[in-house]
């Protein structure tokens, strides 16, 4: 893997960790004042995750997509994500 590829993989992993932290906070405070801002930030984090994966070399993309699959499926199932 190229140095740039390693950076992209690390970036995706870091963003996914941030998403997990936000989702835990959102679950604890589902009706609180912070829920909406956290949701907006998580949406943006997901957007950057998929942009990073899209920019990876084709050989790295399947593993990266598999690494985010479960969390993504949970997110779109439980957090009213509009996929237009």
Query: Structural class per helix/strand content?
Result: mainly alpha
Q: List the helices and strands in order.
A: HHH
Distance between the termini: 34 Å
The residue fraction in helices comes out at over 70%
Average pLDDT metric:
86
Q: Explain this structure to me?
A:
- With 84 residues, the chain is mainly alpha-helical.
- Helix content is 77%, strand content 0%.
Short summary:
77% of the residues lie in helices and 0% in strands.
Attribute tags:
3 helices; 84 residues; mainly alpha; elongated
Chart the SSEs and their pairings.
Elements: H1 3-28, H2 35-55, H3 61-78
Helix pairs in contact: 1-2, 1-3, 2-3
């Amino acid at each position: 893997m190229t140095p740039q590829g390693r950076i992209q993989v690390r970036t995706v992993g870091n963003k996914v960790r941030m998403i997990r932290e936000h989702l835990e906070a959102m679950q604890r405070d589902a009706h609180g004042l912070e829920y909406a801002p956290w949701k907006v930030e998580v949406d943006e984090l997901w957007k950057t995750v998929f942009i990073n994966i899209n920019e990876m070399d084709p050989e790295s993309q399947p593993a990266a997509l598999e690494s985010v699959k479960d969390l993504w499926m949970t997110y779109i199932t439980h957090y009213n994500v509009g996929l237009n």
